[in-house]
Amino acid sequence: MSRLSRIADFGQQVWLDQLSRQLLRGGRLRRLIAEDAIAGVTSNPAIFQQAIAEDPLYREDLARLRAAEPDPERRFEALVLPDIREACDLLRPRYDESRGDKGYVSFEVSPRLAQDADATLAEARRLWAAIDRPNAMIKIPATRACLPAIRDAVAAGININVTLIFSPRQLDAVFAAFRDGLAARHAAGLPVAGLRGVASVFLSRVDARLDPRLAEAAPELRGSIAIASARAGYAHWQAVFGGDDFAALRAAGARPPSCLWASTGTKDPAYSDVRYVEELIGPDTVNTVPAATLEAFADHGEAAETLTRDLATARRRLAELAELGIDLDAEGEVLQEAGLAAFDRAFDALLERVA
Q1: % of the chain surpassing 90 pLDDT
Q2: Which Gene3D superfamilies did the record assign (predicted)?
């Protein structure tokens, strides 16, 4: 067994945070699925911006679409949605074998719609129909404005990957949106079994923002807050979806959204390059891993159940952070705005390239 495939022994899925035509046509994704138990793929505007810029396999189709499709956003979709479908088809055996637990491929709604719930829901419906694969996931940001879109998309039976979650308050709001969407669907007499979702909690950006302030005020907390928050968030997930409030939906076949650990590439070279993988391995979770981190773990990562390790210490560190006057929920709002701005810039660069 490879080092990566051993993670599955502890109930966690590893998804690749990368997609390109070369990855598909060159056979690397197929090998990762077969040899390293890669169970899904995520994409975002930055990933596709890089792929289209660097992968020569896009050039011929892009030249054709420039002549045939006048709208840059529709041109981009016409270029990459076939890749999303191809990745879904490649992962379909994993989806079928696991009865819908694994094998998902995520595609994001336009980041320009992050403050418009109605437009986001309409885009989610349109993209879900356009991809037309049961193992697709539509990515929606965890902004306050989009919470109703998340709830209504779940109620409509669309698999959702909620992205850009940085704080406990944001995570709890996403849990509520999923729960309300499942409840509305069940109340309407529609099936809730087979519907899948993930709540993508971003990690390394939290430490990158807080570490400079902690260096003098509390150096012992440096590099620990993102992991502590993730462990506390997972304990909250267990409480929310493991208790009586979710029992009726669970009996009807509903599955709670899994916690997905995102932004898992280490930004500070002083830390281990696999720390955001090794420290958060546990059941019913997903880790979406960029290519460099995937290669690092394949080389020297160690798999063990670590997610539930020493929850008391995680909570103590979060309490110490609050005692320093640092509000993790407020910091999460800042980080989410920065993340949206970064996706906007990547999307603009992407549309400029296809135009």
Answers
A1: 99
A2: Aldolase class I
Q: Which of the residues 21, 139, 179, 275 is marked catalytic?
A: 139
Distances in whole angstroms, Cα of residue 19 to Cα of each of 126, 289, 291, 355: 21, 12, 10, 21
pLDDT at 1: 78
Residue 67 identity (one-letter amino acid): A
Q: For the domain that residue 87 is a member of, what is the CATH number? A: 3.20.20.70
β-sheet bridge partners, residue 130: none
Give the phi and the psi of residue 307 in degrees, each rounded to 5: -60, -40
Rounded to 5°, the CA angle 94-99-105 comes to: 50
Q: Which helix (H) or strand (E) holds 138?
A: strand 136-141
**Residue range 131-187, pLDDT digits in tens:** 999 999 999 999 999 999 999 999 999 999 999 999 999 999 999 999 999 999 999
- Contact between 107 and 123 under an 8 Å Cβ cutoff? The reply is no
Q: Which two tokens stand for residue 235?
A: 């304990």
Number of domains in the chain: 1
267 is annotated as an active-site residue: no
